[in-house]
Batch of 4 targets.
Target 1
Amino acid sequence: MESSLATLTITEAAKKLAAKEITSLELCRACLIEIEKNNKSLNAYLEVFADVEEQAKAADARRAQDEREGNVSHPLLGIPVATKDNILIEGRHASSASKMLENYVASFDATVITKLKAAGVVFMGRTNMDEFAMGGSTENSAYGPTKNPFDHTRVAGGSSGGSAAALASGMALGTFGSDTGGSIREPASFCGLVGLKPTYGAVSRSGVMAMGSSLDQIGPFGRTVEDTELLFDTIRGKDALDGTSIDAGFYPKREPTKKIGVPRHLLANGVDQDVLAAFEESLKVLQSQGYVAVDIELPSAGLALAIYYIIMPAESSTNLARFDGVRYGLSIKGETLAEDYAKSRGAGFGPEVRRRIMLGTYVLSSGYYDAYYGKATLAREKLRKEYADVLATVDAVAVPTVPTPAFAIGEKAADPLSMYLADIFTVTANLTGNPAISVPMGTVVRGDKTLPVGIQFTAAHGDEDTLFKLGKIATGESK
């Protein structure tokens, strides 16, 4: 029985906990059994916390106290969750999957952690990721790649691949990641999960290691849209520690149009035919519930990858400048200060991080700033306006989350550009700040393996409610 508890949704588990059918201790032990069975092969967790059972017992005691005092417990009380290795938990290691921060211990809680602690979750551990969130496959981790639970020869997606694999394999009931250009939605698609990139500012970034500050958002993975919505509602809201954060009601409510915009001009090339067929079937499900799919034009969307791969490295190189071998992190001494920098950063950062730092430094350098970064910023504003205009006429924009199912480990490692192309449909929401969700839309077959694929919906700023509504219809949660 214990092991089967690990397959519950959060909603199901919360009901059983409230009805005293199970305890948090039993639930967490079920996940620990799955960790023992699966983590060595999947490499989803970098660390499983030693005090999981103590946390679970404390959650059970808190629930009993709530009952004695006549209080209603938070639905997440006692639920086992896992967090990406770039989200700070006081007193715990947080390395961003990099040798640069291998021994770093967080001195404070990220705001999302503070909120989750208030809700009473049990933290199972920290999950693997691409180093400093730079990658789309979790192959760039300094501690080895995370493997896909559906096929161990394939990637779990990235950069939040560890969080996705942990949830998909029963090693937690909910997980959290960060999304800079699709880093939640792509692994959600590859691992058959729901993944949300919230509106920029909807979730505080305080206590989360920055990659691209104007692009990053923290978001949840769930087995269902309902679970994902609950996790999001728990962590959202304005935070005095993050000046870019916003209140839940910051954007006005919108009247539904019952229209879904489909930019078919973007789907003509590069999308696998069976993925496209699954996408069309998902649209039919929405149409059966009264929605109309309309063709839309987003002229600048074809430039989104080019815009993103100028702005993101520029912001990343600036954020990572703090890791210099002097203040904190890995420090290797040379004969001069310049050698200190070079040796520390050369040993501490992996190849992909070094590549992006160099690219970002280049586009920000004298003589190239206006030619690259300046133009990318202008193009970003044009793209944002195009999305705003389109989303004034439709409820959401729909595309396949990724053009393909999960690819083989090592398949794209030697060709960074082909790896970057996997982000073609996801980077746009980060550039524009819109919320976007990936939900399962079926499976495709590769060899002897059946692999999940996802559909992505993008809505207007602050309109996560529409994403949850569409996601529930597309996945059959809302009948």
Note: The longest helix spans residues 369-391.
Target 2
Amino acid sequence: MMKNKRIYSVLVENRSGVLCKVAGLFSRRSFNIDSLAVGETDDNVVSCMTIVSSGDERTLEQIEKQLNKKLDVIKVKTFEERQCITRELMLMKVKYNKNNRREIMEICEVMNAQIVDMSIHYMMIQICDTPERIRLLLNMFQSISIVEVARTGTLALSKCLENDEC
């Protein structure tokens, strides 16, 4: 069975309990959430949930149908990964020493990551990039002592088209 990945951009009413209801929909039907990010839009009564899920085509269509049935859901847009621009933010704390300090700084430079905090033994690194590049950075740091990682989850907007439609 082929596993596909789909991104759902879900506009919902910004009030308590809505996140729980949407997460419950996934839980009750055994749909997996690969990534979930939620925040207010430019209108403070509307939030945007960006949900990344994977499954066969039937499962992904079912997710969209079930989301559209929810009363708190205003609008559901679905994207294939190639139809949108995705970004994720990651903060990573690493332990460094004089032997690996230069290597860490070079990796950060190549990956366009920034060192945002530092102490005698630790560095905090920030990167905002595609989920694939975030995974690549994590892989590059496997030989270095990663202390802690925090990731936002994927955010996505549809690509702008040639005729200025978005």
Note: The radius of gyration is 19 Å.
Target 3
Amino acid sequence: MAAAAAFLLRLPGLTRPIRADEAGFLLVARAWDPEPASVYGPYFVDRPPLLIATYGWADDVGGPLFIRLVGAVACALLVVAAAYVARLVATETASRWTALAVAAITSNIAINAVAVKGELLALPLLMGSLWLALLAVRDRSWVYALGGGLLAGLALGFKQNLVGGIVFTAVLFVASTFAGRIGLADLVRLALTASAGALVPLLGTVLWARAAGVDLDALWYAVYGFRFDAAGVLASGSAETETVRAALLVVSALGAGMLLVIGGFVVHIRGEWEDDAPLTAAVAGMLVVDVAGLVLGGSFWRDYLFPLLPATALCAALLARRHSKRGVAMRSVIAAAAVSTVVLLAGWAGYQALGLQEFDEVDTGEALHEAAAPDDTLVVFGGRADLQLTSGLPSPYEHLWSLPMRTLDPHLEDLEAVVTGPDAPTWIVEWVGFETWNDTAGEELAALVQERYVAHGAGCGTEPDHRRTIWLLRGTDRPAPEVDCHGGGVGGAAAGDQPSPVRTGTSPARR
């Protein structure tokens, strides 16, 4: 029942437009054309090929939103796997409470019950790797160890920092040896077979890259190297913005019940250690690594909480099995988490039904789709791939997200070359001011855009200091996009309500 609920409570997401990251992954998948120096060809994304391949497959099967259905199935499988793990380490009663906890958290609007990204798709694989690791120690079975390593390795194919399954397995094996549950020979055999399983997806990716003609340096950079460069860019960003997002993330973890479940385990870790030191050490090690990954990732988006779910499930199971006050407290927390999910989902549904949700990017993209000619192209400054996808127009610029642009084209030289070159985009949407991240480069870009383009409308979500101008290449005859902004968004410009095409060298955001 919990698995069915987790599946059903994710289905309302099928009624909402595709989000920015989902749209970006889909655009990369549709244009995928490997080259020696580029894993994906026309567009750059810092994600493993397995994730992009999954998006491409889902799109082929059922269109852009089919990935939401795949995500719902992943949540249901996660609940089932979590219940089996809880039954293995605790009791039947704890298994039911754990299933309820996991179903509630995966469906909670406070985190993300709509969009489906790599973190969510990897969860059943991570949970399954913990299950097989526990079975491998119990039965001293290299087959289970091999399977657990394989699942842990596959999880990395959806998000490259999801090493929690590998850490849990390694700590469990070593700690079980010290506790006398398995011998040294067992440790060597299980560790080798688990490692072999984890290497299978890695070797498969490398073989694919070689067969596709992609240099391994390019593959490494796309999956890992870029993150090191991007970390410096994130660190130089607005501390206030990051602090606000981090605070919202903590509030979301609290509202969904995740923080209380983990906190209960931390408070009672000494008692859990006395009962089962190897398992407690493995859970603690996984938590430390997953929390470190969340913090070091920067950005602090709320769905970065999803990788903590497998460890959260184990924390819930270990405490919910008890008849003491800690068990009562944990079961109460899980019940409250379920109530939180239902209440927040009802509020969200009402908000949607009243038409209060703004879809500025989608509304703007639809208007551009109506105004554009079939061969037109579009660049969205600020990296809104959902607008790009909805417009139906390809981009001659390789960066669909703002972070890769800020990292790989910090002085906007590549974008300036595109704007002034033979493949200049027909349309440019100034979703954020050109000078948002670099004053000097932004002023230069603004001057080039003024020279080659004319203001031809404005997108939804217009703010007093920035009109989100839509620019059209000079000499091109197109109707002005008639943007119909829904959900209470401030309207954009229609044909008779255009911002003046005369601008100074300073972007609207700096006026």
Note: The chain has 21 helices and four strands.
Target 4
Amino acid sequence: MTEKLFGTDGMRGIANNYPLTIDFCTKLAIVLSNNICINRHKIAIARDTRVSGTMLFNALCAGFTSQGVNVVDFGVIPTPLCTTLTPSLDVDMSIMITASHNPYKDNGLKLINSAGDKFSDEQTAMVEAAMQNPFDVRYDADRIGTVTSVYGALEHYLATVQKITSADSLKGMKIVLDSANGAFSAILPQVFAFLGATTISLADLPDGYNINQNCGSQHTEMLCKTVMENHYDLGVAVDGDGDRIIICDENGKRLDGDQIIAYLATYMQKHNMLKGNAVVSTVYSNLGLGKYIRSLGLEHYASAVGERYVINKMREVGSNLGGEESGHMVLSDYTLTGDALLTAVVICLGIKESGHKVSEIFPVFKPFPAVSHNLRFENKEIISKIMEAQEVQDCIAKISNDLSGHGTILVRKSGTEPVIRLKIEDENAEVAAEQAKKLLAVIEKFK
């Protein structure tokens, strides 16, 4: 049986532990060299700010260059910039070394094809199989690749922002920015300064260990406190690799991704920016979002959970707006994947234009009552056992039937962590809570 190495958003684990070791990364690079990098013999690699990024980069470079593949070193840049620049570099693929919103000890690898899209399930399955099948490695003294560096991340974002708006267009706004000590640390504050906003910049001094540490999209306490204490208009937090955004209003209230999707849909429709008369989110989004989108006269489509599934559905229906409740927002007119910075710019432009406080705009829609749980276990093997258990499946099926027509249940394995995510919604909050209690009792038997 082929070992499953990649989840919905690449590979994730603890650095210097299998599979994120130098031996594994070197072998992976050799496999990719001989299966993917066969046309241009060229690859691009980027990373976020965590301390293990350089180690994994060097291991990958050793594998690629040993097979005659040239490496373009992006250095530290956000994931959305890596995906967006990839098609312009005439490379066979690129790799983003990141564990996104996870702590510094974690790291991961996102495999991106030559068009800037994350590898499909079929591509990752092929790589997984190739990693586990015996193969001969050729080393040729006349075939050694080179490593060259490409810079200009800030310049790229400034150029992109100028396609959306002009310098000083956010003058008069007061915004707290939290860069998560990650890949946007040297970019986010400077872009908002260019736009003329008055800002307080938090978590913008990465040291390799402080990425996502009590900061960023997953830890917004300091962001919310700073906004309230300084009487600022709003707060913007990103995650370590810059593809996720969280907003808080002037009262320090955190707004979830579904509300941001609803706001973007409203703003883009008003300005005739929305394509395909459609908006995409995932099956994990609140049922109230779909109801609101349809009330605007738009089509709402729900994809599987995972940013690449959102993007695939957007292309299928011709939409240029999609996102996830977790904070990934895709504005495909400007970027190929979720981009926290560009999303923040568009949101702030809309807020300034409205003349209203953020708390007067949000919430955009009334969500259905929901009960959510993230159940963490020791390893993914235990999770597979639970998810495959007949008693668990029967319980899920019964709850789904009971909620039919007025609610929904979603139970899934996390693609990046040993976690089962459970979410039950219903028009009646008590019904949602009671049904969640039933399923939790069944799952508890397997602990």
Note: Residues 374 and 421 are 5 Å apart (CA to CA).
